[in-house]
Design goal:
Layout lengths: L12 H10 L11 H11 L6 E4 L7 H7 L3 E6 L2 H10 L4 E5 L7 E5 L4 E5 L7 H4 L2 E6 L11 H11 E9 L18 H8 L1
Parallel strand pairs: 1-2, 1-6, 2-5, 6-7
Antiparallel strand pairs: 3-4, 4-5
Catalytic activity: S-adenosyl-L-methionine + a thiopurine = S-adenosyl-L-homocysteine + a thiopurine S-methylether
Main location: cytoplasm
Subcellular location: Cytoplasm
Length: 196
C-alpha cells in the first residue's frame, strides 16, 4: 500500500504511556467529535441499549455521552492514567478489578455498571472476555495502530462485532512522506481490504 516511509514505523506501548505521562495528548478532544454527532443515527440505526466499543479509548468524552443515552460502553486503553482521568473528569465513581484471563490487566467499571474500561493491550482482548458489540466508534485507533499491526487489529475488530453492527471509522488524509505518524495515513483501498 502507498503509505510512503510510514510502513516500517513502530510506536511502542512505552511511548504511548509516556505521551500520557507528559501530557502530550493532542489527540484527545475535550468536545464531542462532530462526525460522531453527524453520523450518530448511522451508528445507532434506530436501536437503543447498544453495546458500543471504543478501541484505544483514551479518555474520550463520547463514552459518557453515549452511556448517558442508555448505551453500554466498553473501552480498552493501555494507559491507566487515561482511564482514571476519564472517571475523575466526569465525577464518575468506579471500581477496579483484575481481569483473570489477562496477566496484569485491570477493568475499571463505573458503579452504575454502564461503562467498563479495560486497561491492557487491545491485542489481549477477545470476544470470550469482552463479548460482542453492536457498534464501534473508531476515532483514533486504526490510525494509531502500527502499520505492521493493521491486519491483526482489523481481524480482532471483525471478531468483536455482531453481524448487524455499525462501525464508524475516522481516518486522516495527508501525504505520508511529510509526516511520520501517528496518526498514520491509511488509504481507502487498504480500509477496503482490511474490512471488506
Amino acid at each position: 500500500s502507498d503509505v510512503g516511509s510510514q510502513k516500517e514505523r513502530v510506536v511502542t506501548e512505552e511511548e504511548w504511556l509516556q505521551k500520557w505521562e507528559m501530557g502530550n495528548i493532542g489527540f484527545h478532544k475535550e468536545q464531542r467529535h462532530p462526525l460522531l454527532q453527524k453520523y450518530l443515527d448511522v451508528l445507532l440505526n434506530g436501536r437503543s441499549g447498544l453495546r458500543i466499543f471504543f478501541p484505544l479509548c483514551g479518555k474520550a468524552v463520547e463514552m459518557k455521552w453515549l452511556a448517558d443515552m442508555g448505551h453500554s460502553i466498553v473501552g480498552v486503553e493501555i494507559s491507566e492514567q487515561a482511564v482514571k482521568e476519564f472517571f475523575s473528569e466526569h465525577s464518575l465513581p468506579y471500581c477496579e478489578e483484575p481481569v483473570p484471563e489477562i496477566s496484569g490487566a485491570k477493568m475499571f467499571q463505573s458503579t452504575s455498571g454502564n461503562i467498563s474500561l479495560y486497561c491492557c493491550s487491545i491485542y489481549d482482548l477477545s470476544s470470550s472476555i469482552v463479548g460482542k458489540f453492536d457498534g464501534v466508534w473508531d476515532r483514533g485507533a486504526l490510525v494509531a495502530v502500527n502499520p505492521c499491526d493493521r491486519q491483526r487489529y482489523a481481524s480482532l475488530m471483525i471478531n468483536l462485532v455482531e453481524k448487524n453492527s455499525s462501525y464508524l471509522l475516522v481516518t486522516v488524509s495527508y501525504d505520508p512522506d511529510k509526516h511520520k505518524g501517528p496518526p498514520f495515513y491509511v488509504p481507502e483501498s487498504e480500509i477496503q481490504s482490511l474490512f471488506g
